[in-house]
């Protein structure tokens, strides 16, 4: 959908300049949305979004800019594939998953910042990296932090027995978000909006969700309390 800003100037040239300017705004907004969506995916799994970008560059039609050409190399594909498999499998190991979160959160912030910065290559460098740190790094850090907090809660409530469910959900979420950006980027804004809504809902209703999933049992009867 085109958004046209009508100026009071009577010249036709000013009108088309206005259309072009608004078109650039929408393009930058879409690029930012794609970058934040990839950053959010990195918050779930750090290396999986990079692996999907590498696969799309080598076997698909994704064209990477000069700063990201290394992602499309065979060596990067092999290293990212190994790192992705190790990361995914490690989160199925009890206690190890909690330790990994301490490393994953800062690493996700760095990768999220780089992914968003890479999607804003046409901006002024100061604006590019400022937005990347705040939006991209913020998104990946928030997702990784919430997952880490959820894993700690699950570990305390189930002794780590239910952590594999969260690990599986994280991997699926990272893959879906990255595939949307690569295959159907027009849906990235919708996916990002749904993700933000879900995160806000969980944060606001965490106590209720926890009570429903893990109801407290009556000490005398052993039955869940209402």
Structure summary:
The chain is an all-alpha fold and 226 residues long. It has one domain (33-206).
Instruction: Give the tally of β-strands.
Output: 0
Number of helices: 8
What is the beta-strand fraction?
under 5%
Biggest pleated sheet: none
Give the termini distance in whole angstroms: 50 Å
* Structural Rg: 21 Å
Assign the structural class, choosing from mainly alpha, mainly beta, alpha/beta, alpha+beta, or little secondary structure.
mainly alpha
Order of helices and strands: HHHHHHHH
- How many separate domains make up the residues? 1
Mean pLDDT: 83
Keywords:
73% helix; mainly alpha; 8 helices; 226 residues
Kindly describe this structure.
With 226 residues, the chain is an all-alpha fold. It has one domain (33-206). 73% of the residues lie in helices and 0% in strands. The protein contains eight helices and no strands. The longest helix is centred in the middle third of the chain and has 34 residues, at 125-158. The protein is globular, with a radius of gyration of 21 Å. It starts with 11 loop residues before the first helix and ends in a 13-residue tail after the last helix.
Q: Strands, helices and their partners?
A:
Elements: H1 12-44, H2 48-59, H3 74-90, H4 96-119, H5 125-158, H6 163-183, H7 188-204, H8 206-213
């Amino acid at each position: 959908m085109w958004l046209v800003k009508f100026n009071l100037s009577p010249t036709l040239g000013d009108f088309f300049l206005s259309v072009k300017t608004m078109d650039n705004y929408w393009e930058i907004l879409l690029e930012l949305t794609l970058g934040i969506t990839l950053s959010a995916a990195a918050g779930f799994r750090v290396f999986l979004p990079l692996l999907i970008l590498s696969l799309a560059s080598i076997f698909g039609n994704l064209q990477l800019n000069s700063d990201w050409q290394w992602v499309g190399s065979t060596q990067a594909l092999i290293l990212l594939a190994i790192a992705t498999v190790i990361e995914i499998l490690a989160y199925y190991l009890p206690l190890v998953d909690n330790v990994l979160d301490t490393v994953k959160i800062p690493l996700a912030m760095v990768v999220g910042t780089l992914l968003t910065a890479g999607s804003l290559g046409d901006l002024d460098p100061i604006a590019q990296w400022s937005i990347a740190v705040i939006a991209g790094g913020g998104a990946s850090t928030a997702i990784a932090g919430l997952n880490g907090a959820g894993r700690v809660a699950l570990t305390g409530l189930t002794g780590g027995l239910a952590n594999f469910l969260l690990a599986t959900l994280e991997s699926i979420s990272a893959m879906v978000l990255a595939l949307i950006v690569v295959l159907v980027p027009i849906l990235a804004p919708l996916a990002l909006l749904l993700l933000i809504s879900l995160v806000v809902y969980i944060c606001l209703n965490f106590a209720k969700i926890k009570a429903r999933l893990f109801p407290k049992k009556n000490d005398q009867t052993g039955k869940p309390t209402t």
